[in-house]
């Protein structure tokens, strides 16, 4: 019989296969046939029939069938009721056809072909569901889903302006590379991540409507050892280690120079060979790839690149992130190694961002994969705020109790939150991530997302699948059939338990062996009748190779010898352990020959072996025993789930699987096979993209405020000569405290401000709502600082001793009336008090009962606005647990505008007296010969709504416009249409809550981050010391990473 006879040739045959003898096709059971307990809450009568508002019932919202209205073409249509169910919501399409791969009597090949077609058609159904029958290609009755096109997908959310390009960023390219100088590169398939690479192949194929490009690191590049006949002496021994420490190679021919030894400190690749690889990868028919070359700046020159210590770029991800994500804590250390690893990790992510931005066009979709690139979404968001970004984590994500042990926990979370959508393998992982964002960062979150940086980051669960069609094709080749027959003959009359794992601690190989030993103890009747064939491939995780405490390899070998010694004989060993890579044919033959698939991972993200085992068992229906800690356990619900730490429980399940009736095994296999063939890799990637398009379409007008890019900040700071700094005080330089008088600057704040203001090219100002006395008491000893007190009412220039009163001509008669209102509410609210300044009055309720304080502040504000606010030219401002009344024209924005225009006027005057050098220190000015006389760097930081005035003013000054400032110099600049400060040179930064909507271009979370940024620019170490006492060695890890990114190497001193 032809094995392909049951394979459908088209979607029509798939549909025909589901048609019964009477000619009626199977349909999903109606809702009326379901019991109430199985209904979702929104359809249960016990829920929806209970009136929420007295006198209002469900019927009040329902529209009777007689309630009709005329359509546009005169046709009747029914109006939708309040509770009407919508077929499409937020451009979400229906899932693949239910039961399409689980029909009665459906053959295996039909399941495979149908599942592949379902995955391919998934995106096509998205566009059809979103546009309905009126779309450009409406399906006819009984026809297959029409061919998708980018025009269909764009029609879902036209405002997104999708280009149809997808850029997938992953750490390793799909090939392992072997380099031969002057020859084509040898590209071999890379082991591991087969599901991800299959997804890339699908997106790159003609079946997908997208143009797909992969951006990835080259990985460690190998150089082949030259082969020569046996016993051939080497041409030279220069490159060989000496047998005796006192000996060294001597050339045999003194007339010839000794051969040049190979570079001991790295692999040199000429530019032409780099370009050759880039051409090979860009023209690859399966997956178009753009390589990322990772090396220090000093190792990369125009004529080539030197690759030294290539494994350094993966160390932080594997030593810190991989271990923690799998619930393993590294041993504590002095932190020196971690500092270097973090700096490399940061630089590696930046190099990925640089490469992506080289090929990115607005409207492209960027998909970032896995823990090695967790900083990349935020780095991309910093440089392209409107980019469409999705992130998918293929590994587990730990609970907050474990994740908070990571020293760089905040930076990692902030990096991922630059994405629009974050995907996980299982619900528990997504819940842990949202919990970490709330517990560590303080961001509001729920089961569907996190509120961050003035926007919302969606979180979803997208269990990954495999390419079932590919596995089915590879598992039944002639070579596999031969090896399968050999295995069945070799172990005739014996049951085979198959295990294939990577040899690291999280795969649970030791637990599997101990459970098998327990099985042989409890069930002696199975001795000599069951064999465990365990294949352990070498781990690719460097941390596991170097772990002296684990010694997993020795532990596994000991267990194998113990079991074979106790239960084996001369002619039979109950455990066969193969610590090696096996060929693909041997692997599939083993899965087909097995009677049980046993997976005991103690923590796992995605286990493709379990899915491939299901495909390979389509004939023999061998049960699958799967650890409940595996990421695929939630998807394969019909498998036998076990706790690998419960050895007796695992042993009992092995016995249950061996004694399971054939009927039950086949039922389990049919259910698992239906899932694996329908929820394949095409379904996974299409569903992920579908959700991303829906998220982007629903939030197209909301832009997040990206995290401040410290490396960009440092670059601009170094490029400019004249710089202006404006800092708020409370909530920016110091944390908000319950007692205002307790907000005292730390020694680190004072040291950093001193170092920054000591540079004569820096103008540093503190612009605060505090009064003069407070600022002078705590910061007045730094004479190089400029001050603006009471929101701009008073100013004191750097080096001056006298204050300038900007409100001396104002009538302050309003203060008496405001003071009476404030006193009335002070008497009503215990714990509140009044702060009287020269030009403003503030009522504080920070120490009062929180609920009472907020309630009474609303009443107080309303009373002030309806009385004093109408009589006097003042404004009532709501602060952080306070109300403040001040003259209308006095605000921080006016001060910011005044400072920028004043300093620019001075620079223009200086440039006029000494032509040839711009005001920012460059030869022709601030990188723009047409506007050479202005500030080259402006940094403004604040935390509350009063600081929004500064951000608004600076945004206006960075736009070419007339009428800014006063005086001849400002008029000349306005006439020329020049901005007072270039937008790229102006950094406006809001500090604090993640949910705030701000006019600032950048975001920081707390005052500690502000001081870190100031310390980075001023060259102050982490201990509060300057560069002369500690320098780089005492610099914080985040600042060291930013400095390394700017200099493209890790500074030694």
Report on the structure:
One of its GO terms (cellular component) is cytosol. Residues 1-51, 911-930 are annotated as: Disordered. One of its GO terms (molecular function) is trehalose-phosphatase activity. This is Glycosyltransferase family 20 protein. Helix content is 37%, strand content 15%. The chain contains 33 helices and 34 strands. The strands form seven sheets. The chain has a nine-stranded mixed β-sheet with strand order 8-6-3-11-12-13-16-15-14, sandwiched between helices. Helix 19 links the parallel strand 20 and strand 21. Helix 7 packs across helix 8 (336-359). The longest helix is centred in the N-terminal third of the chain and has 24 residues, at 108-131.
Question: What secondary-structure arrangement, pairings included, does this model have?
Answer:
Layout: H1 11-17, H2 45-48, E1 68-70, E2 76-78, H3 108-131, H4 150-156, E3 165-172, E4 175-178, E5 186-189, H5 194-204, E6 211-217, E7 267-270, H6 271-282, E8 289-292, E9 300-301, E10 304-307, H7 315-325, H8 336-359, E11 365-369, H9 376-383, E12 388-392, H10 400-403, H11 409-416, E13 421-424, H12 427-440, E14 445-446, E15 449-452, E16 455-461, H13 468-474, H14 478-490, E17 495-502, H15 509-522, E18 530-537, H16 542-546, H17 552-567, E19 575-578, H18 584-593, E20 596-599, H19 608-616, E21 624-627, E22 640-642, H20 647-659, H21 662-678, H22 681-698, H23 710-719, E23 723-727, H24 747-757, E24 762-767, H25 772-779, E25 786-789, E26 794-796, E27 804-805, H26 814-828, E28 833-836, E29 841-844, H27 850-866, H28 868-871, E30 874-879, E31 882-887, H29 892-913, E32 937-942, H30 945-957, H31 968-975, E33 986-991, E34 1002-1004, H32 1007-1018, H33 1037-1047
Parallel strand pairs: 3-6, 3-11, 6-8, 11-12, 12-13, 13-16, 17-18, 17-20, 18-19, 20-21, 21-22, 23-24, 23-32, 24-25, 32-33, 33-34
Antiparallel strand pairs: 1-2, 4-5, 7-10, 9-10, 14-15, 15-16, 25-26, 26-27, 28-29, 29-31, 30-31
């Amino acid at each position: 019989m032809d094995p392909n006879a049951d394979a459908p040739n088209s979607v029509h045959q798939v549909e025909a296969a589901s048609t019964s003898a009477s000619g009626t096709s199977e349909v999903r059971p109606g809702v009326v046939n379901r019991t109430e307990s199985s209904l979702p809450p929104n359809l249960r009568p016990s829920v929806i029939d209970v009136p929420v508002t007295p006198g209002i019932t469900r019927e009040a919202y329902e529209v009777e069938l007689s309630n009709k209205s005329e359509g546009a073409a005169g046709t009747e249509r029914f109006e939708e009721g309040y509770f009407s169910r919508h077929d499409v919501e937020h451009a979400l399409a229906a899932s693949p056809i239910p039961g399409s791969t689980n029909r009665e009597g459906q053959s295996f090949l039909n399941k495979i072909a149908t599942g592949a077609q379902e995955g391919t058609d998934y995106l096509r159904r998205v566009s059809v569901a979103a546009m309905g029958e009126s779309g450009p290609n409406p399906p006819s009755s009984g026809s297959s889903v029409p061919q998708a096109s980018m025009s269909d997908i764009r029609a879902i959310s036209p405002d997104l302006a999708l280009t149809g390009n997808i850029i997938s960023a992953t750490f390793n390219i799909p090939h392992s590379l072997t380099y031969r100088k002057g020859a084509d590169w040898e590209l071999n398939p890379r082991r591991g991540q087969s599901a991800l690479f299959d997804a890339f192949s699908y997106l790159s194929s003609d079946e997908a409507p997208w143009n797909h490009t992969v951006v990835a690191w080259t990985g460690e590049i190998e150089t082949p050892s030259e082969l020569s006949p046996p016993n051939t002496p080497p041409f030279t021994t220069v490159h060989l280690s000496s047998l005796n420490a006192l000996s060294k190679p001597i050339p045999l021919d003194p007339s010839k120079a000794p051969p040049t030894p190979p570079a001991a400190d790295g692999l040199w690749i000429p530019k032409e060979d780099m370009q050759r690889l880039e051409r090979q990868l860009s023209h690859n028919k399966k997956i178009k790839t753009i390589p990322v070359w990772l090396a220090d700046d000093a190792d990369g020159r125009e004529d080539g690149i030197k690759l030294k210590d290539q494994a350094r770029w993966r160390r932080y991800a594997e030593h810190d992130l991989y271990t923690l994500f799998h619930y393993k804590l590294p041993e504590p250390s002095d932190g020196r190694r971690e500092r270097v690893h973090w700096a490399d990790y940061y630089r590696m992510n930046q190099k990925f961002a640089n490469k992506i931005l080289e090929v990115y066009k607005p409207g492209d979709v960027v998909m970032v994969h896995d823990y090695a690139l967790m900083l990349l979404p935020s780095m991309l968001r910093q440089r392209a705020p409107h980019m469409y970004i999705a992130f998918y984590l293929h590994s587990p994500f730990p609970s907050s109790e474990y994740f908070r042990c990571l020293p760089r926990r905040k930076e990692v979370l902030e990096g991922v939150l630059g994405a629009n959508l974050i995907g996980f393998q299982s619900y528990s992982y997504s819940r842990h991530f949202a919990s970490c964002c709330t517990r560590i960062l303080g961001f509001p979150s729920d089961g569907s997302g996190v509120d961050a940086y003035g926007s919302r980051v969606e979180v979803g669960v997208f269990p990954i699948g495999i390419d079932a069609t590919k596995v089915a094709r590879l598992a039944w080749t002639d070579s596999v059939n031969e090896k399968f027959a050999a295995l069945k003959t070799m172990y005739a009359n014996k049951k085979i338990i198959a295990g294939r794992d990577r040899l690291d601690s999280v795969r649970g190989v030791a637990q599997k062996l101990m459970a098998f030993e327990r099985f042989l103890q409890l069930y002696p009747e199975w001795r000599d009748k069951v064999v465990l064939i365990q294949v352990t491939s070498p781990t690719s995780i460097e941390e596991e190779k170097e772990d002296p405490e684990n010694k997993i390899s020795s532990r596994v070998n000991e267990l194998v010898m113990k079991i074979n010694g106790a239960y084996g004989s001369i002619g039979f060993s109950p455990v066969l352990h193969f610590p090696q890579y096996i060929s693909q044919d041997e692997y599939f033959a083993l899965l087909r020959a097995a009677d049980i698939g046993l997976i005991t991972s103690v923590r796992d993200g995605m286990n493709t072996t379990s899915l491939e085992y299901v495909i390979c068992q389509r004939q023999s229906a061998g049960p699958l025993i799967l650890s409940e800690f595996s990421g695929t356990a939630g998807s394969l619900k019909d498998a036998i789930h076990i706790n690998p730490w419960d050895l007796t429980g695992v042993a009992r399940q092995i016995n249950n699987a061996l004694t399971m009736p054939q009927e039950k095994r086949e039922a389990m296999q049919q259910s698992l096979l239906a899932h694996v063939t329908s929820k394949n890799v095409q379904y996974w990637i299409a569903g992920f993209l579908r959700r991303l398009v829906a998220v982007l379409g629903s939030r197209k007008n909301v832009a997040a405020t990206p995290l401040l890019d410290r490396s960009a900040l440092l670059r601009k700071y170094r490029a400019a000569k004249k710089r202006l700094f404006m800092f708020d005080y409370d909530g920016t330089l110091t944390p908000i405290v319950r007692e205002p008088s307790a907000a005292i600057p730390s020694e680190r704040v004072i040291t950093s401000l001193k170092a920054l203001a000591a540079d004569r090219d820096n103008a540093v100002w503190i612009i605060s709502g505090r009064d003069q006395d407070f600022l002078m008491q705590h910061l007045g000893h730094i004479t190089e600082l400029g001050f603006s007190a009471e929101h701009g009412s008073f100013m004191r220039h750097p080096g001056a001793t006298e204050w300038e009163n900007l409100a001396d001509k104002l009538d302050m008669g309003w203060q008496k009336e405001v003071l009476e209102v404030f006193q009335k509410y002070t008497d009503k609210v215990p714990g509140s008090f009044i702060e009287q300044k020269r030009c403003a009055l503030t009522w504080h309720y920070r120490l009062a009962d929180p609920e009472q304080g907020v309630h009474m502040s609303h009443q107080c504000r309303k009373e002030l606005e309806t009385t004093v606010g109408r009589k006097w030219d003042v404004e009532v401002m709501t602060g952080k647990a306070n109300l403040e009344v001040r003259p209308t024209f006095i605000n921080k924005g006016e001060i910011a505008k005044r400072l920028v225009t004043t300093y620019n006027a001075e620079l223009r005057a200086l440039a006029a007296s000494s032509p040839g050098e711009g005001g920012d220190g460059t030869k022709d000015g601030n990188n723009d010969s047409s506007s050479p006389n202005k500030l080259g760097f402006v940094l403004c930081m604040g935390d509350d709504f009063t600081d929004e005035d500064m951000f608004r003013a600076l945004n206006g000054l960075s736009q070419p416009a007339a009428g800014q400032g006063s005086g001849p110099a400002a008029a000349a600049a306005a006439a020329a249409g020049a901005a007072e400060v270039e937008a790229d040179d102006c950094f406006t930064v809001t500090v604090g809550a993640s949910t705030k909507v701000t006019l600032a271009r950048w975001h920081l979370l707390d005052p500690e981050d502000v001081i870190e940024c100031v310390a980075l620019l001023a060259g102050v170490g982490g201990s509060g010391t300057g560069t002369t006492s500690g320098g780089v060695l005492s610099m914080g890890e985040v600042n060291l990473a930013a400095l390394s990114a700017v200099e493209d190497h890790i500074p030694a001193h």
